Structure formats: C-alpha cells, structure tokens
Automatic annotation (TrEMBL):
Family named by the database record: Belongs to the GDA1/CD39 NTPase family.
Subcellular location field: Golgi apparatus membrane
Name of the gene: YEL042W
Name of the protein in question: Guanosine-diphosphatase
GO terms under cellular component: Golgi membrane
Topology relative to the membrane: Single-pass type II membrane protein
Amino acid sequence: MAPIFRNYRFAIGAFAAIMLILLIKTSSTGSLSISRTVSPTASVPKTSGDVSTLPFGDKPGYIGNPKAEQDYPEMADAVKSQTSQKCSEEHRYVVMIDAGSSGSRVHVYEFDVCTSPPTLINEEFKMLTPGLSSYDTDAAGAAESLDSLLDFAVDNVPLKARGCTPVAVRATAGLRIIGDAKSKKILTAVTNHLEKDYPFPIAEGSVSIMDGDEEGVFAWITTNYLLKNIGTEGAKLPTAAVFDLGGGSTQIVFEPTFPENEKMVEGEHKYDLNFGGKIYTLYQFSHLRYGLMEGRKRINSVLVQNAIKDGKITKGDGSKTHKIMSPCLPPKVNSSNEKVELAAGETYTVDFIGPDVPTGTQCRFLTDQILNKDAKCQSPPCSFNGVHQPSMVRTFKELNDIYIFSFFYDRTHPLGMPSSFTLNELMDLTRTVCSGEETWKSVFSGIEGSLDELKSDPHYCLDLSFQVSLLHTGYDIPLYRELRTAEKIDDTEIGWSLGASLSLLESDFECKVSQIE
C-alpha cells in the first residue's frame, strides 16, 4: 500500500507544478482575459437608434440624456443627485424676532443650504423684557425697544451676508389682545425703523402678527426637525406632539392616527404640511387668552366676582385696595397690589391673602372652571371651551413623545423637575408647592435656588395648578402619561422661531445690494 500512496503524492505534486508554470506564463504575456466567444451566426438584438449616447463621460458629473430622463425620471434624478458637483453655495442667515406678550427675543440662525431641507449650523439668541404690547400707544418707543436685539443680530451676521439676510418680526398673543389699531401702529413703526436703520431686507408680510395656527405648526416643525423626526431620508418616522404655553395663548399640535374607517374631522384645526417631500396631516389649535398670564387674570377675576356676589367688595368700588382670600396661594403667602380687570371694564386693586391651611385642591377647582369644559361641543370629541380635538388616548400612540415647553419648562425646571416626568408627578409637585414654606424646606432644600424662587414669586401654586388643569382636564392627557420638557434640543431653542425661519429662507425678498461689500 505504501508505494501506491507515494505514487499518488507524486502525481499530485507534478500536476500542481504544471499548473504553476502555466499561471506564470499567462501572467508574463499580459493581463488575464475573461471572455465568451460568440458564434458569428448568432442573432444580435437590434439597439434603438434613440440610445446613441449613454449618460457617462470622461469628466465627472451628469451627462443629460433626454430620452432616458423622459422614460426613467426617478432613475435619472437618482443619478443626478449622486453625480452632481459638490455644492459651493455659502451659508445663509436668518434674523427672527419673536415679539411675545411677556418679552421679545432675537434668534440669529446660520444654515447650510446645500441640503434639503437646510441644515442648521448655529444659533445665537438674546432676549429682553417687556414685550411690544406693553408700549400700548407709544409705537415709536416699541420699535426702538428692539434696538439692542437688532444690534446683536448685526454683530452676529457677517458683513458680506447682511444685505441678503432676511429679518422678520412676528408678534404673537400680546399684540393680538391690545387690538388692531394699536398693533398696526406698532408694526408700522417697526417696519419703518428696520428699513431706515438696519441692513437686513424684509420679506413681504414678515413684520406682522402671527396666526395662531402658524405659531403652533412652526413650533411642531422646530421640535421634530431638531429631534430628526422630519426632514430625513427614508420612510416617515413617528413624530412628537408639542404643547406650547405662552403668556397670552397656548398651542397644541400633533399628528393623530385613526383607524381605517375614521379620519380627521374637517375644519380650521386641520393642517396639511409638506415638509421634506413628505405629507403630514396635523391637528393644531391655538387657544387665545389661555396662556399663563391670561390664566392668572381669569382666576383673579373669578375671585373678585365671587367677592362681589358675597358682598365683600362693593361693585364698582375701584378707589381702594380690597383684601380677598385666595385658595391659589400657599399658607402665609400674600400677593399684594394686584390689578384685576373684569369683563365689564371695571378695575379693582386687590391684596390676595393666603389661607391658614393648604387649599391646592380648591385652587384646582377654579383652574378647571375657567377652562369652560362644559361648553357645547359641536363636533365631538372636544378639549375645552367647545373646541374639537381628537382624543390624545385613542389617536396618539404612547410610544410617541409629548413635548411641553415655554412656561411649562420655566415653571418646573427651577423646582428640580427632570427633563421627563409623568403628569401625575407634575400634580405631586403642585400639591407640594401649594402646601407652604414648611413643606418646601423638606423637599426643595437640595435644589439650588428653588427656595428663593418660591419665596420671591407668590404665583407658583396658581401657575402649576393651571398647568395641571390645562393638560389633564383641558387636553385630556392621562395622569400616567410621560411628558418631556426642555428649553433647548441640540443646543437650539425650542419654539416656533426655527420653523418660521426655515420657511422664511424660501420666501421672496430682494437683497439690499448696496449693503453687500
């Protein structure tokens, strides 16, 4: 057997040596060629005369082929996007002033416009108080109050870009509330001041009072853009709901999903949005006079009206300061010299006195009451004040985020609330705040600045009670539902300003060419 194995090994070795010699010879005579011989009699299919030039060339880039683009437009677009030359367009800037009811804020945004939608590169931000509406009939003073914000914008936009950087001043609930005559004079003064004294062009309609639906939808765009839920390639992603609590109004915007046999009721609340080539059917509504400051006014008005009914205040007696007990104050806390205006135009000066024991539950009774939950609902289901709203339980999945911001954030963050909490935890915080200073010491001592914040501002119990009522009683959000709150996402302010700025980039405006060097 051994000789047979030796001969077998010898045969294998000889065969391997022969193959190696052939391989070396082939490599030395030229590159290896892989081909298939075609019989000269084979039938070759005829090629259409229309295909004479393929979209390829010696130079990089796309070579047009009208026939191919007509027959295969999607493929042609894909080829163009992959073979196009690198975008060399310079970054663009937008100056957006949010003229809110409690103050004005400027946002200076820098965008890379080589992407679709544009990519946010940087934001600079500054704010001041009071708001434009506080100037009432002093239109010139209102316009000049924006100077520090506009000077800040000039400093943060490169000189060569200023003449083509659009500026907008969008007012919200504050100017809506003071009436058309006063607000128009203020906006005219602001427009003239911008045109005369600053280098930024003004797009048509950019100095104006923002509609409530725009305010909410732009805030929705901002939040979901920063979360990268929208404006991305591929399939649509789940989106977050947004709840924005300003001083004069509050907005709700979310993308509901319905069973196959249901759809959204038609009406002003329905908003079809095209963003990044995708369609979003949104529910939105802006509740005017249900912002935080307006909520305070409503509660104080109810207390004064009840005091008049009980004979504790003489109707029409605005000459002296009245003292009234308020369940929306913690024990031993007073709120002095409050001006309370009733619907009839009567104004009363009131010192509100805190109760002997915590009465947070009774405060919640009042904050629920002003929502007018029992108003007739013409198109069920409704949230509050008779306004239609799809159910947050049935049409908004629990896996989707709910973001609450502006005053929702401003009144919870200083008291140590984390970036995510349940509505039930917000109710617990409210109960603690309404319990008074003795309870504060045991709960908030470890949260820097919180005790000083509570002692310096008597409105916390009322404000938090109003927030709980608004979210739970008003919008019907279950107590177990998790809420997220933030001032910024990716170091960019949440709110409507970024969404409005993305829209402004696509608007028509003429550059101030003389300003460009």
